[in-house]
Amino acid sequence: MIIKKITTIIIVCGMFVLMQSCESGGGIETFSEEIKESYNGGMESHYMGDNCMNCHNSGGTGEGLFNVAGTVYDTSKVVAYPNTTVRLYTEPNGQGTLKYIFPVDGRGNFYSTKTIDFGSGLYATVQGGQTTQYMPVSVTIGQCSSCHGVTEDKIWAK
Description:
Distance between the termini: 76 Å
Helix content: 10-25%
Number of helices: 1
Strand order of the largest sheet: 3-2-5-6
Strand content: 15-25%
Shape: globular
Structural class: alpha+beta
Radius of gyration: 22 Å
């Protein structure tokens, strides 16, 4: 009887230790990853204007695997425009179904590790304080800074 109680205590303690290790990241890999997203006023982002996914990819050094990311600028296209909003719709000019909303952080960047279903293409809008800019063509990837600021005009709002 005593051996049975001791065995039960050891099993319960072992389970407790394992549960604590999983919660605190104690070396045991879990199968769910924390969602990382920009938010208005947030200041965690960096490297405005760079292609975020150069680091935030499956083999990269960045924290989190970004599925959409970029930087919004003011009308000068030099100064980052914080606390704006990027949206993805199923049709051009903000029409159709609104699929995703990405708040732009306090440094002018937006990003998300959520899975994004681009399907055959989504249309981006950027809403500033006074206007909404519409991207005239659909996108099927979320690496906004791989084109914008390279072969296309920077993303901007006013």
